[in-house]
Design brief:
By secondary structure, the chain is of the alpha/beta class. It has a domain of about 170 residues: Isopropylmalate Dehydrogenase (3-Layer(aba) Sandwich). It is about 40% helix and about 25% strand. It is built from 11 helices and 12 strands. The strands form 2 sheets. It has a 10-stranded mixed sheet, sandwiched between helices. Helix 1 links the parallel strand 1 and strand 2. Helix 5 packs across helix 6 and helix 9 packs antiparallel against helix 10. The longest helix is centred in the middle third of the chain and has 17 residues. The two termini are about 25 Å apart. Bound molecules: adenosine-5'-triphosphate.
Length: about 350
């Protein structure tokens, strides 16, 4: 949605835990960059419960419906009981079927020159958590049942998205990740549909497939063999943390949820309750997510400037937060970055 003066209206959800700290840092940096975004501030997660008695308040949904664009901090999902994941609900509500998670080396560490793009199906499979318990005798929760649903249309749609992304971005190879030897129906249909779509790109994008466990091991042994990974929802959730680990951890891993009705940009990491409020969180993941958002709205030059300033602050100025072996606070890193901009 265009606001006056070519400004672009976007929903801003600071989120839970370290969310408000990394969101504030990101907004300050975007302001220094001269970004086009005009923010509508909204709540969700625990912050939504505190402010509106609802982990996904109606006002937040309305805002995203209006702007079709959001930058979102991490939202706490209670383990075990409590409310259903708000991230999953947002993905369903706006049919955000594609999750884009790039991992690219900025700081060479155990691995150098990693450049992998993971595409994760975002609204099907086991991850959507259609679950229930079956009582046996006196135990009301004696048996746990989880149902995964993958549709041929959904699998084709995400495969098409991945191959189109590859062509647009000069990527050479897609590895389809599955477990079709055991989950023959649930992940077999994914493999089948992806191979079918791959035929339309023959000669342009190379295709191979890997069983998820072998792929996880190969990512540790020889990650350079991978260019793009195309994953089901649950496998993509797990492997995207693994590839984040290859480039220095969750502090450097952005993500984009893309669909027909909206686009929501976020860090791959969670709300990190162990360091929340201490002012030491690394804001780079959310800042890199903001770069994806700038590209999404057609401002790649601003994204490139921000990425290069991040890289200069980390490499040349050596200003780093604790997770990257430095001593800088979130605010000190942000100040160094703004100086670079
Ligand atoms: P959630 O339930 O919200 O996913 P979590 O604690 O299970 O939270 P993460 O929030 O992803 O999972 O955190 C995993 C680990 O990585 C924690 O030790 C956390 O402190 C660390 N971490 C995550 N994000 C960052 C960050 N931006 N900066 C520094 N450390 C981080």
């Amino acid at each position: 949605m265009e606001a006056p003066n070519n400004r672009i209206m976007a929903t801003l959800i600071p989120g839970d835990g370290i969310g408000p700290e990394v969101t504030q840092a990101t907004v300050e940096v975007l302001d220094a960059l001269g970004s086009p975004f005009e923010w509508e501030l909204c709540t969700a997660g625990m912050a939504g419960i505190d402010a509106a008695g609802d982990p996904l308040p109606a006002a937040t949904l309305e805002s995203i419906r209006r702007t079709k664009l959001a930058l979102k901090g991490p939202l706490t999902t209670p383990v075990g009981g409590g409310f259903r994941s708000v991230n999953v609900r947002l993905r369903e509500e706006f049919k955000l079927f594609a999750n884009l998670r790039p991992a690219k080396t900025i700081i060479p560490g155990r691995y150098e020159n990693i450049d992998i793009v993971l595409i994760r199906e975002n609204i099907e499979g086991l991850y959507v958590a259609h679950e229930h318990f079956i009582p046996v005798g006196a135990d009301p929760r004696a048996v746990a049942v989880s149902t995964g649903v993958n549709t041929r249309d959904g699998c084709r749609r995400i495969a098409r998205f991945a191959f189109e992304y590859a062509v647009r971005n000069g990527r050479k190879k897609i590895t389809i990740v599955h477990k079709a030897n055991v989950l023959k129906a649930l992940t077999g249909i994914f493999l089948e549909a992806a191979r079918e779509i791959a035929q339309d790109y023959a000669g342009r994008v190379e295709v191979e497939d890997r069983i998820v466990d072998a792929c996880a091991m190969q990512l540790v042994l020889n990650p350079w063999q991978f260019d793009m990974l195309l994953c089901t929802n649950l496998f993509g959730d797990i492997l995207s943390d693994e590839i984040a680990g290859l480039v220095g951890g969750l502090g450097l891993a952005p993500g984009a949820n893309l669909g027909e009705h909206a686009a929501i940009f976020e860090a791959v990491h969670g709300s990190a309750p162990d360091i929340a409020g201490k002012g030491v969180a690394n804001p780079v993941s959310l800042m890199l997510a903001a770069c994806l958002m700038l590209e999404h709205v057609g401002r790649p030059e601003l994204a490139a400037r921000l990425r290069s300033a991040i890289s200069d602050a980390l490499l040349q100025d050596q200003v780093r937060t604790r997770d990257l072996g430095g001593t800088a606070s979130t605010k000190e890193f942000t100040a160094a970055l703004i100086k670079r901009l």
